[in-house]
Amino acid sequence: MAIVIIRQDGKSEEWKSAIQELAPDTNVYVHGDDFPKEEVSMALVWKHPENSLNQYPELKLVSSMGAGVDFILEDPGLPEQVAISRVVDPLLAEDMSEFVLALVLGHIKNLNTYHGDHRRRWWQPIAYTRIKDTSVGIMGLGQLGAKVALDLKGAGFQVSGWSRSSKDIPGITTYAGQEGLSDFLNDTNVLVCLLPLTPETEGMLDEKFFEKVEEGTYLINVARGGHLVENDLLMAIENGKISGASLDVFQQEPLGVNHPFWEHDNILITPHVASVSDMDSVASLLLENYRRLTDGDALRFEVSRSRGY
Amino acid sequence: MAIVIIRQDGKSEEWKSAIQELAPDTNVYVHGDDFPKEEVSMALVWKHPENSLNQYPELKLVSSMGAGVDFILEDPGLPEQVAISRVVDPLLAEDMSEFVLALVLGHIKNLNTYHGDHRRRWWQPIAYTRIKDTSVGIMGLGQLGAKVALDLKGAGFQVSGWSRSSKDIPGITTYAGQEGLSDFLNDTNVLVCLLPLTPETEGMLDEKFFEKVEEGTYLINVARGGHLVENDLLMAIENGKISGASLDVFQQEPLGVNHPFWEHDNILITPHVASVSDMDSVASLLLENYRRLTDGDALRFEVSRSRGY
Fold it and tell me: How many whole angstroms separate alpha carbon A170 and alpha carbon B29?
């Protein structure tokens, strides 16, 4: 039994050390090194190359090293029978929640506008909005979305939530499915996308969607770049449906220097930093599932191929 | 018995209407109009002209129309025997608390830096700091400071406080006086100035003060421009003692277009908007003290001339 780490960002060795520090007797290999492939029962992957997984004949479990599994499900070389899991790190949800709170507050206190005014040496007071007068709508009520919704509610915001299938979260008004979308959007000044990326949600934030939002809605996308049709956002800003946006994720990352988003003062661009895996915390969660796999126990955070999360 | 409103920002009539809407039988005059001066027992002032107060022979009470009274105490024409009061509007403290939270979160999530990177089209992820790992030090533990300290504590920050005389706030480590200042500053990553402006605190944030702070402390001044020696801040940023600042108040407002602060990317300038009086809420508090003055009851929010707040 062994673990293989497959990623293309040069951080594999660092992860190997983090895992072996926690469990020195575990066999951990790095994809591309020379080692007996048939030993491997679990692959830890982050944006792995296509057709890397099928080099491991005894593979039982592929685990994302983060919360997202879209890149695993999109891999045409994903072996049929392997289980898929992901990491639900409480710190990731905590960090996401803090970041979203920072973005929402920055928006209602006009800090983004004051940054632009600074550049022009303008002194121009603008009326702020109070927390209690701000309705935040959270799209996606999974581990991250539910945490963010509850924390914003706790901070005093009016919070509602939308998800594909109906969810019940204490104190949060929830809407579900296409039929619930218009009511949800009517209720929302600030829209936070925390959806999983699936074939159903890919490109969901498009022209048709923006037609349904309240005039002047502020958009925060901290999920995946694939949720947003970027040109449609530019049009929605142009016609005033969307007043501005904080975007942490993009169709292509890093965002190219010629991308039109850079020219927009009312788009705050952050370089995919809302919530970054804490290596030790993630390593211990990955090891727990490796132990469960080895012992034949039920896996944690297993992903349904059909649902996509 | 009558009230006179003295301010120079063209908003006197608007205030008069707000007060008379709440109490239609109250005599309210605007300074500069023609009316019997000896009727006036209470003056409502905001940055009034010098030697305006001594035109009212029967004046008993001067009330600031905001939280600050520095401009009243600095008026050489302030009659000797009149009482002084101010407005302690719970909404002002609430708004201040929200604004400070927005600034602290923006700082620890590097949003100010990302705004600068946006201008340069730079994609440069920076490690964020978590709320629980951030020590915020609040200078000034009056109505505003105490509220901000408790709210930040509630949000999960490590919070300590400093004031001239010792204060006890549940859950907050407090320091007092010159002898407590170094320990307070050792404990602080983010420093929030919410001091009253008095002869003792004027220019307190100066070169000597910045020598005592921890390397890389972030400064937030939402009190008065007079607390900060502006050139000394520039030096402290230059030598790294201060990593950056959010300034809402300045020695001179509006900040002149040639002021060196505009050139600094790591100074976020906001145009004195942290907390703006809500007219109805303030008007009802002012009327309450007018009723108390008229009935001979104890005043609320009376200010000590010797303490300056």
Answer: 52
DSSP state of B298: P
DSSP-derived secondary structure letter, A54: G
Domain count, chain B: 2
| Co-location of B98 and B236 in the same domain | yes
Helix (H, G, I), strand (E, B) or coil at A197: coil
CB contact under 8 A, B105 and A101: yes
C-alpha–C-alpha distance, residues B138 and B130, integer Å: 19
Residue pair B181/B206 in contact by the 8 Å Cβ criterion: no
Q: In which residue are the tokens 């983004």 written?
A: A112
Q: What is the DSSP letter of A39?
A: G
- Select from B98, B97, B90, B134 the least CA-distant residue to B301: B90
Which tokens hold the place of B163? 């004031």
B84 and B119 together in one domain: no
Whole-angstrom CA distances from B234 to A151, B112, B227 are 37, 17, 14
Same structural domain for residues B264 and B186? yes
Task: Determine whether the interchain pair A115/B114 forms a contact, defined as Cβ–Cβ distance below 8 Å.
Answer: no
Chain A residues lying within 8 Å of B269, measured CB to CB: 114, 117-118
E strand or H helix at A118 = helix A111-120
Half-sphere exposure (Cβ direction) of B162: Cα atoms closer than 13 Å = 23
Cβ distance of B124 and A271 shorter than 8 Å? yes
Residue A307 lies in a domain: no
Residue A107 sits in the same domain as residue A74: no
Of the candidates A7, A86, A107, A224, the residue annotated as catalytic is A224
pTM for this prediction: 0.88
In chain B, residues with a C-beta closer than 8 Å to the C-beta of A109 are 98-99, 102, 273
Q: Are residues A82 and A209 located together in one domain of the fold?
A: no
Side-chain half-sphere exposure of A306, counting CA atoms within 13 A? 0
Contact: B125, A253; criterion CB under 8 Å: no
Q: Residue B287: which of B14, B10, B18 has the closest Cα? A: B18
One domain for residues A7 and A83? yes
Q: Quick one: A130 and A150 in the same domain? A: yes
Q: How far is CA B285 from the centre of its chain?
A: 18
Catalytic site residues of B?
A: 224, 272
Residues of B with Cβ-Cβ distance to A121 under 8 angstroms: 257, 262
Closest to B60 measured CA to CA, from B300, B283, B296: B296
Strand, coil or helix: A63: strand
User: Looking at the domain assignment, is residue A301 inside a domain?
Assistant: no
pLDDT of residue B89: 87
Query: Is A112 in Cβ contact with B269 (below 8 Å)?
Result: no
Assess B94–A contact: CB distance below 8 Å, yes or no. Answer: yes
- Please check whether residues B247 and B291 belong to one and the same domain: no
Identify the DSSP state of B118: H
CA distance A150 to A220: 17
Q: What is the domain range of residue A66? A: 2-89+278-295
**How confident is the model over A6-46, as pLDDT tens digits?**
999 999 999 999 999 999 999 999 999 999 999 999 999 99
Give pLDDT tens digits for B22-80: 999 999 999 999 999 999 999 999 999 988 999 999 999 999 998 889 999 999 999 99
Taking Cα atoms as reference points, which of A151, A191, A186, A183 lies closest to residue A166? A183
Query: For residue A117, which residues of chain B lie inside 8 Å, CB to CB?
Result: 269, 271
